[in-house]
Design brief:
Length: 350
């Protein structure tokens, strides 16, 4: 059998016999249009904060977490050193080389290149994520060697959290800032601890309150994350003026976090990867052309395979425009039994 999701379209001049062993037709199409996390092009552009424009640690910030460059790049996947290991919701990042602290009176302003885009395909409507240094409290007792007795389980409460007030603001030019509705913003840095094996551009379903993780093991928490990497989601649709009226924003390139009271320890800011909309696909077995209705902010690459295992890109990635794209295999001397797929990759620069 062909893998699920494979459409088999034999060449009418050389039909596949129904009573024979599986044979590859002259032309087949494997439509695989949602490779957000697997497509090599997904990581081609920076999807994290790219530059610190301003940092003030805050009044009386006596922590060791005051090195601004640590906030750039992706969240921590592994904590180095003797007491380190994989970063999980039970074992969060904690080193000065991983976290940045902001206390009352402090602020952080970051630039994003490419910008954060307000796209309808963003998971749960979120456009960017903020990752902190919190973790789930484990309730198991420890033995004499400081190892948990039994399978570690959380009660759903968080450590590394303290009362916090502040605001998140966004800007298209780094000068004029717009505040995101504070009533729509969850606690900064105190929800969904980081899971280092997860996708840092895929939000956790915020319908989950952290207390819903009570009684879960680490494996169960990771399953509930549904391949996400944690963090707190923010939506550009929350932008408003001083009177509370919404301000439509298509994109922003700067995010500013201001803290009035309390302290927060942050790991990273990331863009949310847009989920590929279901495209329309047509094929012409005579010309080996695939027609795809490409969407803006996505590129589409035709790939070919003779065994459904090894895939070769055919031509350059073509940007979507909302109109049909024709992707052709113009190679000569192609043998029978070719399979084709179209890989969609988000392009944050468009």
């Amino acid at each position: 059998m062909l893998p699920p999701g494979t459409a088999e379209v034999p060449d009418n001049r050389d039909p596949v016999k129904s009573n024979s062993p599986i044979q590859l037709p002259k032309f087949a199409v494997l439509a695989l249009l949602a490779l957000l996390a697997l497509s090599g092009g997904v990581r081609a552009h920076a999807q994290f904060a790219t530059r610190v424009l301003h940092y003030h640690p805050g009044t009386n910030n006596t922590t060791v977490y005051t090195n601004p460059p640590v906030i750039l790049g992706e969240p921590s996947r592994v904590t180095p050193g003797e007491w380190g290991g994989p970063v999980t919701p039970f074992y969060p990042a904690y080193l000065p080389s991983q976290l940045l602290s902001i206390t009352g009176g402090g602020s952080l302003t970051l630039e994003f290149d490419p910008p954060i885009r307000n796209l309808p395909g963003n998971r749960f409507g979120f456009d960017f994520l903020i990752f902190g240094g919190t973790g789930f409290m484990v309730t198991n007792d420890l033995d004499a060697d400081w190892n948990y007795i039994g399978i570690p389980t959380t009660d759903g409460s968080l450590f590394g959290v303290e009362p916090l007030t502040g605001r998140v603001q966004v800007s298209t030019n780094g000068v004029d800032f717009i505040t995101l509705d504070p009533k729509r913003i969850p606690g900064l840095g105190d929800v969904f601890p980081t899971e280092g094996t997860g996708d840092f551009h895929r939000p956790v379903d915020h319908a989950f309150n952290p207390t819903r993780f009570a009684g879960m093991t680490l494996e169960q928490v990771q399953k509930a994350y549904d391949s996400a990497g944690g963090g707190v989601g923010f939506d550009l649709d929350w932008a408003q003026d001083a009177s509370g009226n919404p301000i439509p924003l298509a994109s922003v390139s700067v995010v500013r976090l201001e803290i009035d009271s309390g302290e927060v320890e942050l790991d990273a800011f990331t863009l949310v990867a847009t989920e590929a909309p279901a495209p329309e696909i047509r094929l012409d077995p005579q010309t080996r052309e695939v027609e795809v209705t490409g969407q803006p902010h996505w590129t589409y690459t035709l790939e070919a395979s003779a065994n459904l295992v090894t895939w070769t890109p055919i031509g350059e990635a073509v940007p979507g425009t909302g109109t049909p794209l024709r992707l052709a295999d113009a190679r000569t001397g192609i043998l029978a039994g070719q399979f084709y797929r179209v890989v969609a990759t988000p392009d944050f620069r468009r």
